[in-house]
Specification:
By secondary structure, the protein is mainly beta. The chain has a single domain, classed as Beta Barrel (Lipocalin), CATH 2.40.128.280. It has one helix and nine strands; from the N terminus they run H-E-E-E-E-E-E-E-E-E. Strands 1-3-4-5-6-7-8-9 form an eight-stranded antiparallel beta barrel. A hairpin with a 2-residue loop joins strand 6 and strand 7. The longest helix is centred in the first third of the chain and has 10 residues. The protein is globular, with a radius of gyration of 14 Å.
């Protein structure tokens, strides 16, 4: 259940009307903006990152908008889930979906074309920008 919530949370984000004095509309150039499809899930086993072979690539497609809104569609259901997102700094994003709020560490690699979402140290969910070939990236 936590995995489903985390996937849904990532796919659905919005900006929580917060602002900082040192920022001017930072959401308009945030690396999270765009359409992303998940392509890999991993878990940590004795300190080693292991690919979950049972994971279904492109199970989720998420869209992140500059106004802090987002949507996610699971298994091409035709029923998007709406959410909100906020970049809270230092690679951390606060996501609210279906009344639940959680903060995730997200790293952008491969020139910003791959998003690596930390699952509380238990592993990672990897997303690629739609149209990007993740096979061309050798960063982890």
């Amino acid at each position: 259940m936590k995995r489903i919530l985390m996937i849904g949370l990532l796919a659905i984000f919005s900006l929580n009307a917060c602002s900082s004095d040192d920022s001017t509309d930072s959401s308009s150039n945030d690396p999270i903006l765009g359409i992303w499809g998940n392509f890999k899930d991993t878990y940590i086993d004795n300190g080693v990152e292991v690919i979950d072979e049972a994971y279904d690539p492109y199970y989720e497609v998420a869209t992140f908008n500059a106004d802090g809104t987002a949507s996610s569609e699971i298994n091409q259901s035709g029923f998007p889930i709406d959410a909100t997102w906020e970049n809270v700094g230092n690679g951390r994003y606060r996501i609210e979906v279906l009344g639940f709020t959680e903060t995730f560490s997200i790293e952008f690699i491969c020139d910003g074309n791959i998003m690596k979402m930390d699952e509380d140290g238990d592993g990672y969910i990897y997303y690629e920008k739609l149209g990007y070939d993740n096979e061309s990236c050798d960063e982890d």
